[in-house]
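Bench notes, bay 3.
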Amino acid sequence: MCNINYQPMSFVKIAGKSIYRPPIMAHLQVDASYKHHIPEQTKCGLILKSGNRRVIYQEIIQLGRVKNASEAEWAGLYSAIHFALEQNELTIEAENDNLGVISTLITKNYPTRHTYANHYYRKIMELGSQTEWLGLRWIPRRVNYADALLR
């Protein structure tokens, strides 16, 4: 197996009041876990490093009943951003390994064909309007450490 070094893409601003990227950013990784046989146990794991890097949160949030794994990823990203805002983090760079969710938000490909995605798209953008900066990027699953919280 070849060893390919992962080079992360840049964060893309999707919302926020600031024109320029602030120098101090909170870093958020999020991943969701959907259990098709027990959908009410769907949850997301998040790792939030505060902007000053003095506090690291590792949380698991119950998402409630969702229809599928894609909706779980949307709900998880929304819940994680909401959590960061509750910790008074207003400059957030978030990472997730679901390319569909991240690309939809980055390219502002709205409306989508799924009602739940439209719902969470709007809710994420509403949260983003409360921030100074909200940036997103896709990461491969192997570097999404929030995934380990769900195992």
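Next record in the batch:
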Amino acid sequence: MKERKYRDNLILSVARSLYDATTYAALAMRPTAHAVIYLLVFSLVCASIAAIPVARKIDVSLERAGRYFRTDFPDFVFTPEGFNAKGRLPVISIDEERFIWVFDPSGKTDHSILNDYPRGIYLSNEGVLYKKNEIETRHYSLDALKQYAPIAKRDVERLISYHWVLTAAITAFILVFSVLAKYLSALFVALIGLAGFALAQRQVPFNILFRLSMYSLTLPIIIKTASSATEMDIPWFFIIYYGIAVFYLIRGVGVIRTLPPEG
């Protein structure tokens, strides 16, 4: 009997569950480890596809920034006392009036120069101000860099030349974060399902809900991957994403007449 329960290929079973709710009965009989491994592999594949255009953008942006730094940025040496720069200051770069980049160790300007722009970076001897949006502005101290001083412009140019390493690191971080986020999403969907079935006065073990919630994320992940790869913005996608997952979970559990034992 146990061999019959797992006779169907897992991938085919998950694919069938997209249009046949009764497949959730067979998925529920599988151990939770199957669902965990499925979500891990599926998330990695989809995240890799979605990360391709992001990685290209990051690499192109870093390469462009490197060219600008080499040609337009003044010579400088960073010491424990601050920047010693040669040339015309401040250095100001504006991208379509949406982003401003300012380097001014001379003190001729201050952080208020960021006020007229939705996003921007202000670098001075006092540190780095990063205006993320109209509401949030973050401050980063340069104290951590002082132990590596002196740092010259040519040292930074050498570091920027390895922009592909930074691109790879950022891409790897995106992949890891994406996979972890999927497990948190599955947990969130399972908690919603637990609350919903409690209101309906039906006892469903949380382990079963969490197991099936990992399968219920299949279609939302596919849609998310397609929208990311095509750079298509879907309004209210957060609600759509979890709405579809909760729908599949409730529909799937609803057709299961006898729930498997918890474990």
